[in-house]
Amino acid sequence: MTGDLLPILLVLCTFCSATSGQNTTTRSWYDPVIASDLMSATTTATTSSSGGSSSPFLRWRASVRVGGGSCALVGVEDVVSGGAARSAVRKANAAVLHLFCDTPSAALTLNENCDPTVRTDLHAAMNKVTQRCGDSAGSASASLIGHSLSLPVLNGEWNHGTWQGIYVCNFARSARDIEIIATLHVLSGPSLHWRDVVSSPRGALNIFPKLRNHWSSPKPLSGIAHLEILHTSASLSIMSEVASRAMENSLSALIPEKWNDEFFQHTYEGSDDMPAHAKTAVVGPTLSIPLSHSFDQEGVYLVEHRDSGGWGCGHSRTVVTVLETSDIVGQWTVEITLPETGWTDITDQIQAAITEHTTRGTNQLCWVWSPSPKSALVLWPGNASPATAIPMVVPPKITVAHWDLLRSVLAQAVMLPLDEAHLGLQHRVWLGSKDITCAFTIVLFSTN
Known about the structure:
Elements: H1 5-19, H2 32-40, E1 44-46, E2 49-50, E3 53-54, E4 57-66, E5 70-74, H3 76-79, H4 83-91, E6 94-101, E7 106-112, H5 117-129, H6 137-145, E8 148-154, E9 157-158, E10 164-170, E11 176-186, E12 192-198, E13 203-206, H7 208-214, E14 224-229, E15 234-239, H8 241-254, H9 259-262, H10 273-283, E16 286-290, E17 299-304, E18 316-324, E19 328-337, E20 343-345, H11 347-356, E21 363-369, E22 375-381, H12 402-409, E23 413-417, E24 427-433, E25 437-446
Antiparallel strand pairs: 1-4, 2-3, 4-11, 5-10, 6-8, 6-11, 7-10, 8-9, 12-18, 13-17, 14-16, 14-18, 15-17, 19-25, 20-24, 21-23, 21-25, 22-24
């Protein structure tokens, strides 16, 4: 097969998959070793009872073997490999599947499930972005991509885009088993909504007013809205209106199109395509926001990274929203004062809040959100601080403020799995902000 024919066949393969249905995936492009390992592995699933009834939560662990310096492509059917887990997902009318990666220098995201060079190009891009971070480059790359995903499940299936698959990224040099902690939360009542959005080319559009109007009325006072965009060249983020005007230009400084000529292999769909895939992975295809927040100072933005929006797709984008409002113990906001470095470890404060509000039930999940503008959350391994490495990912010349970019490319929220009332993670949770005084919000989920 000549090199000229390969891109054509890849496009035909993807087009056939796309025309066969919204939730169809091209399984031939998934890593067969990873899929085989997962399907044959022993997956631990735990269930609990409360008051004689089944718990709405199911927890299990999946181990994915990923080569050094590479990204593996898996599907939900691979992660949900245990009999109890698979059965629970198939029976769920509406649920959220929370995936969390606690392995240092490893990350989770959604991106193209067809051409394998997207995965190698993404890893190469992250190496370039974090090249000034020294020995912390792997941790910085994982922080930019993210450690958790909250995926909508409707009528027993993960609702995803035709070209979307789960990337398990290993930023360490050697091959490792990357552990994924999965928590299925079966929701009570209808809670999943669709919204088709026509976005403007290469820019950011505030979709919060449309999403809010689409939610049930009256709006719940507590709970979380999980958003997923069903595309691989557009992303979701929280930012100010001022930052939104220049965000795409700043992301192009972070991941420039000139890399097509330097090292990208996935170049046959246009000069803006592979940079758009990398931007989507960094900014994020999923986003979680509290239902109680008014977003007066910021908005929820759909960031379009392409001029044309993909193969004949224009700029029509689909966003799925899941409202997770059941089994909430409570919601609290903690105000803190940061040191001069702009970063502080809030793990112990999160744990103290969990312990203080623990009930007789079993705590399952703890959602942490940074509501302050120009702030962000980072999961960092061990007792080291991200204060030195994280600023190194910001390009010298950008058109938005330093912290505006960091808020978009780092985590604004993270869902943490709990072992009873304990975090028990390999990572510490760090909060960074431009302002000395800021806050973080906790939402605790329990079986009781």
